[in-house]
Amino acid sequence: MSLNNSSNIFLDSVPSNTNRFQVNVINENHESSAAANDDTDPPHYEETSFGDEAQKRLRISFRPGNQECYDNFLQSGETAKTDSSFHAYDSHTKTYYLQTFGHNTMDAVPKIEYYRNTGSVSGPKASRPSLLEIHEQLAKNVAVAPSSADRVANGDGIPGDEQAENKEDDQAGVVKFGWVKGVLVRCMLNIWGVMLFIRLSWIVGEAGIGLGVIIIGLSVVVTTLTGISMSAICTNGVVRGGGAYYLISRSLGPEFGGSIGLIFAFANAVAVAMYVVGFAETVVDLLKESDSMMVDPTNDIRIIGSITVVILLGISVAGMEWEAKAQVILLVILLIAIANFFIGTVIPSNNEKKSRGFFNYQASIFAENFGPRFTKGEGFFSVFAIFFPAATGILAGANISGDLEDPQDAIPRGTMLAIFITTVAYLGVAICVGACVVRDATGNVNDTIISGMNCNGSAACGLGYDFSRCRHEPCQYGLMNNFQVMSMVSGFGPLITAGIFSATLSSALASLVSAPKVFQALCKDNIYKALQFFAKGYGKNNEPLRGYILTFLIAMAFILIAELNTIAPIISNFFLASYALINFSCFHASYAKSPGWRPAYGIYNMWVSLFGAVLCCAVMFVINWWAAVITYVIEFFLYIYVTYKKPEVNWGSSTQALSYVSALDNALELTTVDDHVKNFRPQCIVLTGGPMTRPALLDITHAFTKNSGLCICCEVFVGPRKLCVKEMNSGMGKKQAWLIKNKIKAFYAAVAADCFRDGVRSLLQASGLGRMKPNTLVIGYKKNWRKAPLTEIENYVGIIHDAFDFEIGVVIVRISQGFDISQVLQVQEELERLEQERLALEATIKDNECEEGSGGIRGLFKKAGKLNITKTTPKNDGSINTIQSMHVGEFNQKLVEASTQFKKKQEKGTIDVWWLFDDGGLTLLIPYILTLRKKWKDCKLRIYVGGKINRIEEEKIVMASLLSKFRIKFADIHIIGDINIKPNKESWKVFEEMIEPYRLHESCKDLTTAEKLKRETPWKITDAELEAVKEKSYRQVRLNELLQEHSRAANLIVLSLPVARKGSISDLLYMAWLEILTKNLPPVLLVRGNHKNVLTFYS
């Protein structure tokens, strides 16, 4: 295809989703390039528009004047390639390239789809091209599937038609609320409760206008600080459903979130009963006035409450949209009732209202009511405790966070504005009622002033009424005595009653919606596995119908009790505990200094949040100390439960961030202190490969490092770097997870290297952090050294030399069966995989049969595709039959049993320590640590040391004295005086036969032949070398005889590792030493420290 100005032609193939960056197809042939170079105008980039996929058209954008080129293109008879016919790597076939903003690159431009979580409800997650894809060379002749370019452009492929349609259908009926309807209305309705109408006037009468304003102000401080902290948390990332539970759990982790989530959901459920009973009590009072009681007051409350909660449940189950409409209607009624009160304060009072204490605005009444006048048993804190529940309800909007269009914007804006509006209303009502109504009034219109009477500063007296007898006998009216003051003051009394109904029903409705939503979010996270049943949602809005039923049953139970005076303070404390944790979450996230903590809401301070948390805790005890204690006990119990269960979730909590900061600070602090011998502990690099492939080696190392030292399981990947790095990175998480699952306190580390020795050398030098660096290398004995390639033997012995060069101790562990069980694991994994495929296929066929033909064969393939059942399955059936026919013995049962021998509790016996050479004490310290472990506590230490035959008793006393100074308990000490005698002939013959295949025998040949053999086989053992170290060879053989004699029945042998001097001892001879030394023995640990003290007898 040839086309001028081809740089201006863009492929716009209208994919099925709109999550692509702009992709351009360019022509690279010479003519078009020349034409493009001649055109000096900058290319005109036109934003692609994405239409319906059914169009499947090629859109071409061109500058004015290029229409002719376009026409020529259409008439040329060549068809344009759609983006499904080329591949991102296809730079060698024809002339097509993927372009990102005009550059020939696969690099993706920043897009929100790359940062979404899998399964995000706000849109599909895309995967950007990996670093490997943009770093490696472009592959030639890559076979690509249709629409591969789409996958590259989107990073994750395009969902199928069916999935896309389903997603659109799912989104079509979802109801989402803005900040006014979703947050502001709900918070205002929940904050404006019954307290506004029937208790606020009493609070002003007791505390006075001055302290009353302070009480309101203190309550608002608590809610405002909590609102600020909540706003900061809400704007630090996308907020999902779950309200307070979601905010706390994602910030502090599942332990705090899980404990407070259950409490908070239960509190909301019981709050439904509280508000409904408040409504029922008001209705019963009206029935009393009209003499229309049904049974008796208690049973009437139960009947009315039950009917009410059923109606509210129906509204809630009908859907969030109906519930929101009901809330708006209730808010309108509430606002009319409040406005009705303020209008009533300026309507001139009549004689009846004056006799009840209402005189409109009077300065004398304001002055008289400004100070407190607490009655018997009341005080500032008791009055505060009664008012504070009226200020709660700020979480009403956050609790339905999953149903908000933009929770990050709606929750802060709606909550803070609701706090401000309701605070103004509370203050206005408190001041107005304090300036209009006296504290005590008789209600008798005839109690007027008698001429000549001394008023003694009484405001009512100055206004013509004598209420002095209220000092000696109780009165029914006034701020102190009448809870219906607002109804009396208002312009139209029944509107206040309607306001009370509105306040109670709206709060009950909000709680009835909040409890299931929070509970559903808690159950979805599967923190409490027994509650998973309630996680299911129904309909477009994922309504928690099961949660609604549970909340209904809890509310009904407490309504039938009809005595909530005891449980009410506990509920208030549950809410306050949530507030305290929200404040603490904000403080904790700020204190952890995680780079991920960057809230868009900047009006917060971590110390102010901490103050808010402390204030909430203090208010809990002020309201009711025993309820606060109960709350903390329940929360602590749930916290311990969740911590013990350790739910498999990772939310990037501030607890994790603080743990990291603490670990980093402690590691840095360690570097400022020099190492001390008293604090020495084995810190081991264990060459296990994959930790699951050599479990016995890891178990014995973990036995002396658990809770005391560092343990790093290391693996070296040898081969082409690209393949090694890919394999290494893909397995890191899995192998570390295996360690955690098996409760092994160790780290996993891996390196890719050109050879095994280079990899180990890198690990020895670079592993660890600061003072937490390995000081001991633990390796398994190379059992197959006689059959292994020479390079493997050189590497094996070489890493021992490298460890000594780096002044790192070495431990070589030998067990009779060897350590590597990788072949057994492979067979087990294959069996498990094939069994899973078989079960999946059976399930698919069974489901298809149950459908009875609906969907036909197409449905079967669809399901099989979802289950990853492919047409290669029949081939695997042969594998199943082959493997199942294998005898169990072929799995090497002895090897499997040997791999678990250090997991078991060791039988009563001994650990024999052959401390032949002083290496600083590591040979003695490791077995001592083992005896401290539960699995080894029944094993006693027996110490074997070399000595002179004529000084056995003296040396035994000296060694006992040294061990007692080291405070190491032992069962016995043996002085071996005949180590250096020659071994018997049979043992020596075994050794000679062992090394025979590796000897050079140069002394039997002429000089020229001998020199040639040395050059050709430098690894062989020369006669000169064997003669030079003959005494050492004797010693290794003799030691095996002594070990067979003294320690054959030991549970474990710990033996000084012989050191091969570099350049003097050949690798094969050294391996022969180790072989003959540890042959036919129980498990052996060959230990050699770095010859620096690890034991001390100084305090």
UniProtKB/TrEMBL annotation:
Q: Which GO terms describe its molecular function?
A: sodium:potassium:chloride symporter activity
Q: Which residues form the SLC12A transporter C-terminal domain?
A: 694-1099
What is the protein's membrane topology class? Multi-pass membrane protein
Region Disordered, annotated ranges: 31-52, 148-167
One of the GO biological process terms: potassium ion homeostasis
Reactions this protein catalyses: K(+)(out) + 2 chloride(out) + Na(+)(out) = K(+)(in) + 2 chloride(in) + Na(+)(in)
Can you name a GO cellular component term?
apical plasma membrane
Q: Which residues form a coiled coil?
A: 824-851
Q: Which residues form the Amino acid permease/ SLC12A domain?
A: 182-685
Instruction: Give the highest taxon in the source lineage.
Output: Eukaryota
Family, according to the entry, reads as follows: Belongs to the SLC12A transporter family.
What's this protein's name? Answer: Solute carrier family 12 member 1 isoform X2
